TrEMBL record:
Spans annotated as Disordered: 1-27
Protein name: Polymerase/histidinol phosphatase N-terminal domain-containing protein
Biased composition (Basic residues): 1-17
One Pfam family recorded for the sequence: PHP
Organism: Oryza nivara
Amino acid sequence: MGSRKKAKPSRSRKKAKPSPDQAVALDYVRAWAHPAASAPPPEPSAADAAGDDFLPHQAARMASGGGGSVLFELHSHSNHSDGFLSPSELVERAHRNGVKVLALTDHDTMAGIPEAVSAAHRFGMRIIPGVEISALYSPKEIAGTGEHVHILAYYGMCGPSRFDDLERMLSNIRDGRYLRARNMLAKLDRLKVPIKWEHVTKIAGEGVAPGRLHIARAMVEMGHIENIRQAFNKYIGDDGPAYATGSEPFAETVVQLINRTGGISALAHPWALKNPDAVIRALKGAGLNALEVYRSDGKVDGFSELAEKYDLLKIGGSDFHGRGGKDESDIGTVKLAITTLCSFLKMARPIWCSAMKDILLKFTEEPSTTNLGKMVMFGELINFNGFSSTGSGMDIVNLCLSSWLSNNGMEEVELEELVKSCT
């Protein structure tokens, strides 16, 4: 029997030590992401933050109960717009995939946020109240002309500071979606692709403004086309024969409203635009904060340079809808750099704190049941127990502060500023 060569012991690759900036960023992000009300996961070693600046490579371990990663998902949809999962199901799936901070960004509605917040509380997760707003970029601001864009808005745990202003815009967009869907069905009928309105609204669900994805699903179910992609490519894409416009506001107006209501604005999927440079330049002038650059397949060529050109924060997300299949990436697949997450929070937290101050100040001036409902719409209160006294504005403010602070919503310096403003 011939001699056998001894196999060389395998050498595991050494993890590079995190830079000082990475270590500081990791501490900052973890301190915000893990609510004090729930037990934080075990502290990771310094080596856990290593590896090509992406945070960290243990999402699977986190999902099974171990590890200490802080995975953000900044773009997701539920069945309150064109997603397939309820907010609770979406949160559960995100939790299984190791997500600790989830932004629910349904199209033109924030109706799913309260359910998502309630579900996330069970898992010690954070919800960033968000929305993806349909808009129109038109250099000359001529209604019905220009390029359709989607703008993401990210708010703090209390939501928008002027919710009525934002909801008025979103409601107008949703109303326009009903009209647009009917116009699309009329065009499809002329193209010998008949779809019943009742079929589309049933797919969309009660109270959900129908979108193109709902129409595409109806087309598949009726056997007119084989899959959703074909519906867009052949009929209802932006240049398709059955495409119709809605009542979208101008993109600059949307960005300005997000700024006024205490949000962070980001341009979604710029790779879908015909003239991204012109759109980004105009929106930056209106106050745009960030640009989606990362998606499930990594950095998109050219858009990182555009973000740098216009001094925009580079972010990204899976744009998860839950439709299944190979065409969609799972929730939590975009791993943003820890330094990027830190920059995002450092930009957002003062803005969110200011919005919180505006919300609480408005309530002290007018402590009505209506304003109380708006104030606690997105932020779950601990020990609230149905408290609804309208004669004790400061008592309610103090209750909100203690509850939100118990979830580590603000830093010490932010708390001092807020308390002074409300007393």
